[in-house]
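step=encode ok
step=design start
structure_in=
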């Protein structure tokens, strides 16, 4: 078998001075003053913000700020922010045909052609985002479900992988009540933005395919850590998720993405707690961190968190276990 070395990753240095703020018992990332708009740095991404910070951003940017509602259309229709763009999960990722099965591609993001290792489909994303009235330089606030969900933070990760150049923020936590409590109003009528041209510049080197993962498993480089973001039952093979061979990728380490939330809600842990948890698992900034789960969904929260903590070598395994555990040419571990 030919060994294919993992592709080099784009060097992205993120240094964000995040302070802690309290909202009831929930602790989330925040900037020093809750009534001031957070400022983007480096490549424009400041992922986790509070509803109060989102309100400040709206007042600062006006109509230039795009609110992106990641929820299903029926939830959007029942109440959303005025002028918000609705781009639900299927706008970002392929329909749920299981990767790894005969004749099905090993990807979840839209990719070019029939090759499992094809680049991200820039034409698809240019069309979808441009038709929604989003340009690649627009500042964006994503809201919906909590981080790590397809109708939550996946668009933030997707926009970064597509090379979005505007500021992108994610509303930490879940629930429209956070927005209304901060002074936002909800509407039910859609107010579409005019279509514009979107130009994606995909970071394909940060999207690993099966060949990359197999090469690392067969000949460990010593410079890569595979982070399994799934539950303990999935890791040990008790929960199959319909996979032909339950278990995990050999050599991987595990931190369930749910462990990155505070105990009292779906807001992210403080920075120091996050850093300590990663260090204990051997997920350190000197390594290339490759994230996987079942469908490259639960990787979205760790992806954002790692970027904000200054990890500069980062990738996702797009096919994840839905591909890896349903092939007969891969090695799977169980307890």
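sequence_out=
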């Amino acid at each position: 078998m030919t060994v294919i070395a993992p592709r080099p990753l784009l060097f992205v240095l993120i240094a964000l001075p995040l302070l802690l703020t309290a909202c009831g018992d929930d602790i989330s990332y925040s900037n020093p003053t809750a009534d001031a708009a957070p400022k983007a740095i480096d490549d424009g991404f400041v992922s986790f913000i509070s509803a109060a910070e989102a309100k400040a951003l709206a007042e600062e940017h006006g109509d230039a700020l795009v609110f992106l509602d990641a929820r299903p259309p029926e939830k959007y229709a029942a109440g959303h922010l005025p002028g918000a763009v609705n781009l639900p999960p299927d706008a970002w990722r392929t329909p749920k045909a299981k990767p790894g099965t005969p004749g099905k591609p090993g990807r979840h993001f839209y990719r070019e052609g029939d090759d499992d290792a094809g680049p991200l489909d820039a034409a698809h994303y240019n069309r979808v985002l441009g038709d929604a009235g989003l340009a690649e330089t627009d500042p964006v606030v994503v809201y919906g479900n909590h981080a790590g969900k397809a109708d939550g933070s996946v668009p933030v990760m997707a926009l970064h992988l597509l090379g979005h150049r505007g500021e992108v923020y994610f509303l930490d936590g879940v629930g429209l009540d956070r927005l209304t409590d901060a002074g936002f109003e909800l509407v039910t009528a859609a107010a579409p933005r005019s279509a514009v041209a979107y130009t994606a510049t995909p970071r394909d080197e940060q999207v690993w395919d099966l060949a990359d993962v197999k090469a690392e498993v067969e000949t460990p480089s010593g410079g890569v850590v595979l982070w399994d973001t799934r539950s303990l039952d999935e890791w040990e093979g008790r929960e199959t998720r319909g996979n032909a061979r339950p278990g995990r990728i050999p050599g991987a380490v595990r931190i369930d993405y749910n462990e990155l939330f505070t105990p009292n809600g779906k807001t992210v842990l403080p920075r120091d707690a996050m850093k300590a948890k990663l260090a204990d698992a051997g997920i350190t900034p000197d390594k290339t961190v490759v994230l996987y789960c079942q469908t490259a969904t639960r990787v979205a929260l760790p992806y954002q968190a790692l970027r904000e903590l200054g990890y500069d070598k980062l990738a996702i395994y797009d096919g994840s276990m839905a591909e890896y555990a349903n092939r007969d040419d891969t090695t799977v571990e169980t307890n």
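step=design ok
step=annotate ok -> Residues 26 and 272 are 16 Å apart (CA to CA).
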